[in-house]
Amino acid sequence: MERTFIALKPDAVQRGLIGEIISRIEKRGFKIVAMKLMHLSEEKAKEHYSEHIGKPFFDKLVTFITSGPIVAIVVEGVNVVKTMRKTMGATNPQDSELGSIRADFGQDMGRNIIHGSDSLESAKREIAIFFDDSEILPSWNRDVDKWVIE
User: Is 115 a catalytic residue?
Assistant: First the structure.
């Protein structure tokens, strides 16, 4: 099973979309193995967005992600990175497929509701930024899994 990192950004939290988004993740058949509500420090935000250091939008990213609480989540499932990227929609909500999280709730690039790792390597790095190993459940079985995954 793959694992990926998902963050519900401050705009999702402020707009009361946590439950709706988590419901969509679970309805896709994925399991949540770690989750916490947190206010991200500037230091952690810079570490999370380190690949964007030096880009013109870096400071704006850090300012926004630290502007309010976020929900950090580790999601587990078959092909979870790719499928969650599709479920989230394109980075720009205006380019997202109808029915995706960003198309349904996002307004623009700066307020696009959700972050998800773009690769297994990114997922491992991002999960380690937000969670200690002791905070992540080992893989567990749900009775419904046999009806979701072959």
Answer: yes
- Is 0.85 surpassed by the pTM of this model? yes
Among 26, 125, 133, residue whose Cα is nearest residue 80: 26
| Long-range contacts (CB closer than 8 Å, 24 or more residues apart) made by 137-146 | 137/33, 137/34, 138/33, 139/1, 139/33, 139/76, 140/31, 140/33, 142/31, 145/29
| Dist. CA 92–CA 108, nearest whole Å | 6
Q: Averaged in consecutive runs of 10 residues, what is the pLDDT profile of the chain (150 residues)?
A: 96 98 96 97 96 93 97 97 97 94 92 96 98 93 85
- Of 39, 48, 52, 115, the active-site residue reads 115
d(CA 137, CA 123): 16
| Residue 130 near residue 37, CB atoms below 8 Å | no
